Amino acid sequence: MSTDFQQARIALGLRLRELRTEGGLTGRQLAERLGWTQSKVSKLETGRQTATPDDLKAWATGVGQPGAASELTARLKAFESQYRSWRRQLAAGHRPVQDTLTIEYEQSTVMRAWEGSMIVGMLQTADYARHVFNAYVDLHRSPRDVEEAVRARIRRQESLYRPGRQYRIVMGEAALRARLCPPAVMAAQLDRLSGVIGLDTVTLGIVPFEAQLALPPANGFWIYDERLVIVEDWHAELWLEQPENVALYTRVWDTLADAAAFGSEAHRVLTRCRRALGAV
């Protein structure tokens, strides 16, 4: 969980405690009034649990200040906008998530990406993307709109051919070797990567296994111009807009790019990964 998110949750908890004390209630008294456990009141006030909009409305009413509900809800929405749980995002399926990302791509000119575990979405073949989406549907038990999500992802790739855009993508060699799909699908995916290296809009780097690293390669992320970073984790995405966070992830990307192979050297890494698949 991001430090910014946790700090915002703690700040909301302090405001909840302030409202409770202004109402002359102890934590136990408020819990009894709301039909909650005392531990829930304590967790909300100390930032160890994220309140729901219904929790905040009940709290405001319970302390005798129903008008404070709108203020509390606004605080919640402000920090939830950067912490986007997959459970919430995928409630309607994967297609809406792809459409939301397309908006960010269309608003950006220079995009940087790091991915160490799988092929980045902007360079995936349809067959590879299909296997990835199916895996995440099973993991998150989300609506199975795989074909709609694949079409949305492939349609977004049209921007790879638009002049004026720059995609600066760095991947780890492990992403090229992870068997997330059958060998024939992976072979076609590696051929696809070889084909994009010559595009004017794409700079593709691959960090080979033998590269000396200044930082441990961690979560995948995208940087959109100098305004937004989207970081992926198993449970959520973080949408970070603070300049200091954007600058931090830019430094991380620069460090990983320094260890990457580009051009003909990248082709050589792709060739050995393709050879490792055997006869396909």
How does this structure look, described?
The protein contains 13 helices and seven strands. The chain has two domains: 3-81, 434 Repressor (Amino-terminal Domain) (Orthogonal Bundle); 85-276, Endonuclease, Chain A (2-Layer Sandwich), CATH 3.30.870. Strand 5 and strand 6 form a beta hairpin. It has 280 residues and is of the alpha/beta class. The radius of gyration is 23 Å and the shape is elongated. Strands 1-7-6-5-2-3-4 form a seven-stranded mixed β-sheet.
Number of domains: 2
Multimeric state of these chains? single chain
Distance between the termini: 42 Å
What is the CATH topology descriptor of the largest domain?
A: Endonuclease, Chain A
Average pLDDT = 92
| Rg, Å, rounded | 23 Å
Overall form: elongated
Short description:
The protein has 280 residues and is α/β, with parallel strands linked by helices. The protein has helices spanning 3-22, 27-34, 38-45, 53-62, 69-80, 86-89, 95-106, 126-140, 146-156, 173-177, 183-196, 243-258, 263-276; strands at residues 83-85, 110-115, 166-172, 202-207, 221-224, 228-232, 236-240.
Which structural traits does this protein have?
280 residues; alpha/beta; 434 Repressor (Amino-terminal Domain); Endonuclease, Chain A; 7 strands; elongated
Helix/strand layout:
Layout: H1 3-22, H2 27-34, H3 38-45, H4 53-62, H5 69-80, E1 83-85, H6 86-89, H7 95-106, E2 110-115, H8 126-140, H9 146-156, E3 166-172, H10 173-177, H11 183-196, E4 202-207, E5 221-224, E6 228-232, E7 236-240, H12 243-258, H13 263-276
Parallel strand pairs: 2-3, 3-4
Antiparallel strand pairs: 1-7, 2-5, 5-6, 6-7
Helix pairs in contact: 1-5, 2-3, 4-5, 7-9, 8-9, 11-13
